[in-house]
Amino acid sequence: MNKFKETVGEEVEVEAPIAEEPVIEKKAKAPAKPSAFSNWLAQNMSKESALNILPFLFFLTVLGMLYIANKHYAEKNIRQIEKINKELKELKWEHLTAKSILMSKSKQSEVAKITKTFGLNEAVAPPTKIVVERK
Fold it and tell me: Residue ranges of the domains in the chain?
């Protein structure tokens, strides 16, 4: 029987007995070279330097939280402004409707029709000015 060698790497063809198909084995890869960033990080990030950076990281965290809070506050204000603008448009239309109804009801002919139901008639003679003498 054939045994497989399980390692990470390139595949190599190994000859098998005549009755069986060829078996593929994997070669081990060389360990990866550390990157320049990881080298720099290992050299410059000691426990003391990490503790020195903590206040700055805390400042950046607070700044980020303030930024997010400000965005939420601004979006809330925008929604409120849109709601108030919609309400303002509705009130403008109500005002225009009420104004047009009042204009039509305050015409002289309309007022005369309404006052006839109370028994009042239009004056035929023009109005006269009453003058009062003071002593």
Answer: 50-108
Residue with more model confidence, 89 or 46: 89
CA distance 21 to 14: 10
Beta pairing class for 23-26 and 11-14: antiparallel
Cα(24)–Cα(30) distance, integer angstroms? 19
Cα–Cα distance, 132 to 135 (Å, whole number)? 10
Q: Exposed (0-12), middle (13-18) or buried (19+): which is 100, by Cβ within 10 Å?
A: exposed
The token pair at 93 is: 């239309």
Place of tokens 């005369």: 112
Q: pLDDT tens-digit profile of 25-51?
A: 776 776 777 788 887 777 777 778 778
> What is the separation of C-alpha 84 from the centre of its chain, rounded to a whole number of angstroms?
18
Nearest to 111 by CA among 122, 98, 125: 122
**Which structure tokens are listed for 89?**
């448009």
| Pairwise CA distance, residues 7 & 30, whole Å | 11
